[in-house]
């Protein structure tokens, strides 16, 4: 039986790989995509999602736009890692959409998809958590329809947008705290401590790009992202953060995870958006929240390549 899947996203180069991975995986049924501000403004994340949907030939999947700002405080800045349009300036290389944005907003779409589902739905938030926080706040009765959340975000040992904070959580710490700390939905958090260990090389990308026109179009979105990682980490490759979370949604247990107690720093000091993770043995974490800590990274890279290379022609 396939698992119904909703991806909440702010595309983003790694988001593009995540969406492609979901489209290529028979274990899940992608039933909806919702967009949120993040790497670029909402208008761009939504336009990117529509183009990616067209590339992946999944125009059957509704795409609904969501929050264009955080719950409380403005996002100080956008990420420059993904280029001017979020896709290394290459959005125009993707097919024109043949279906418009869904008239429903993101929260309404998620609500209606959950209400209609006859089995638990997995939601994979791979951008700021604003849409998901709003869903859980407005419709708490629907929590029982959510099988689990697989959240890409946070850093246990530091951040990537500040010394303390990872970009997604830092973009809306109040929303992240609502989802990760205050709620009781079964959740797996996939932090950058794990995703950074599954970087893929420029050579890996080039090989993937040769497998099909669709894969080649995906790899064609990576130029600015590659340049960023070369500049900031001296890495000749990229980190496909969001695809790692989708991989865990496709194959539950692919990532080893532990139940740590967690807080999100919502102060306005240098730690804002950072995670405070209590890893002491005498401080057991909540039953619903597990934090990914490890995996077979070579095996995970092989899984990503196998699925993404199966996308076929564009």
Automatic annotation (TrEMBL):
Gene3D superfamilies from the UniProt entry: Ribonucleoside hydrolase-like (3.90.245.10)
InterPro entries: Inosine/uridine_hydrolase_dom, IUNH, Ribo_hydro-like
Organism domain of life: Bacteria
Region called Disordered, residue ranges: 66-101
Residue ranges of every copy of the Inosine/uridine-preferring nucleoside hydrolase domain listed in the record: 5-300
Name this protein carries in UniProt: Nucleoside hydrolase
Gene Ontology MF annotations: hydrolase activity
Pfam families: IU_nuc_hydro
UniProt entry keywords in alphabetical sequence: Glycosidase, Hydrolase
């Amino acid at each position: 039986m396939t698992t119904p899947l909703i991806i909440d996203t702010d595309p983003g180069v790694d988001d593009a790989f995540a969406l492609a991975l979901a489209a290529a995986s028979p274990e899940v049924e992608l039933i909806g995509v919702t967009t949120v501000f993040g790497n670029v403004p909402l208008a761009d994340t939504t336009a990117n999602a529509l183009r990616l949907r067209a590339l992946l030939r999944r125009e059957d999947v509704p795409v609904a736009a969501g929050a264009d700002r955080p719950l409380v405080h403005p996002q100080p800045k956008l990420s420059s890692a993904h280029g001017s349009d979020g896709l290394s300036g290459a959005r125009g290389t993707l097919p024109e959409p043949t279906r418009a944005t869904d008239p429903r907003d993101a929260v309404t779409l998620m609500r209606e998809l959950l209400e209609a589902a006859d089995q638990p739905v997995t939601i994979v938030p791979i951008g700021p958590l604003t849409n998901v926080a709003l869903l859980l706040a407005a419709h708490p009765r629907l929590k029982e329809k959510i099988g689990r959340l697989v959240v890409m975000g946070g850093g246990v040992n530091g951040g990537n947008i500040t010394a303390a904070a990872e970009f997604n959580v830092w973009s809306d710490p109040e929303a992240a705290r609502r989802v990760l700390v205050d709620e009781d939905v079964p959740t797996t958090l996939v932090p950058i401590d794990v995703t950074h260990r599954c970087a893929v090389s420029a050579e890996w990308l080039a090989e993937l790009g040769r497998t099909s026109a669709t894969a080649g179009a995906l790899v064609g979105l990576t130029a600015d992202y590659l340049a960023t990682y070369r500049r900031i980490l001296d890495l000749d490759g990229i980190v496909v953060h969001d695809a790692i979370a989708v991989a865990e949604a496709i194959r539950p247990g692919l990532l080893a995870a532990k139940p740590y107690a967690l807080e999100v720093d919502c102060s306005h000091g240098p730690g804002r958006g950072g995670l405070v993770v209590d890893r002491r043995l005498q401080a057991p974490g909540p039953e619903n929240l597990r934090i990914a800590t490890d995996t077979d990274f070579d095996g995970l890279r092989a899984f990503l390549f196998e699925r993404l290379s199966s996308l076929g022609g564009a």
